[in-house]
Design goal:
The chain is of the alpha+beta class. Among the domains are: 1-63, no CATH class; 67-124, no CATH class; 128-169. Helix content is 54%, strand content 12%. It has helices spanning 68-83, 91-96, 110-115, 126-221, 233-236, 242-246, and strands at 2-6, 9-13, 18-21, 24-27, 32-36, 52-54, 85-86, 101-102. A three-stranded antiparallel beta sheet has the order 1-2-5, with no helix packed on it. It has a three-stranded antiparallel beta sheet with strand order 3-4-6, with no helix packed on it. A hairpin with a 2-residue loop joins strand 3 (18-21) and strand 4. Keywords: Coiled coil. Residues 139-184 form a coiled coil.
Length: 247
Amino acid sequence: MYMGRQANLVIVVHDGEVGHHGSTLIRKASAVRRTPLSGHSRLNDYNRTCIPVHLPAFLDVSEKSLPPSTIRRHKAADGIDQFGFEVMPCSRCEKRGAICKMVEGKKKCGLCVRLGRPCDVTGTPLNSLTRIITEAKRLDQREAEAEELLSRRREALRQAQRELDESLSELESCRKRKRDLTKKGAEMTRRGLDSLEALERAEQAEVPQEQLVIEDVNSLVHSDILDLSFLDPSFFDGGSSSGVVGH
């Protein structure tokens, strides 16, 4: 850490958090703060915005004055910023609102490499996250459509069930009416047969009397008791009955 005094101000520059460009130090990540001497013992709430800070000549820090490890970190960070891919921000980048980049196979983002700090980056590329979000939205849409389709089919199934119940009820009603009609027809047929049998019995009861009369007549016709000699022969020939009177 470099500390210099100018008038009644103290200028604090943290190693590993500054870049050098000519005679101007570029504050990379809240590395420089001007504070009154009365408060230099406690430096907090650093400004997060990267702005150029012009320092007096005695605080001018060239790249050669930085430790080799710091220079290498800065170059590595520059490479990550230039050629890395954007990922979901680590906690440090998220806190500072910085773009979080990393390279394949490494576990630190550019900012954490530059600062020499631990990094909790997940390494999930933003384009992958975008695809995931897009796919999630697509699945949400498909889920909503599937639920709507299921609801329509469930309602159609309920309607079909109601129609099926109505058809079964109508069928059962038809069968019941048919059974009743068959029973009634059978009863009427039975009664008709009973009436027919009674009529036949009555007719059969009348047959003997008529038969007796016919038999009596037949017996008289073929009997010797009946003498027809008194009839004129012309009676049988269709003649007049006047001859009978003459006899």
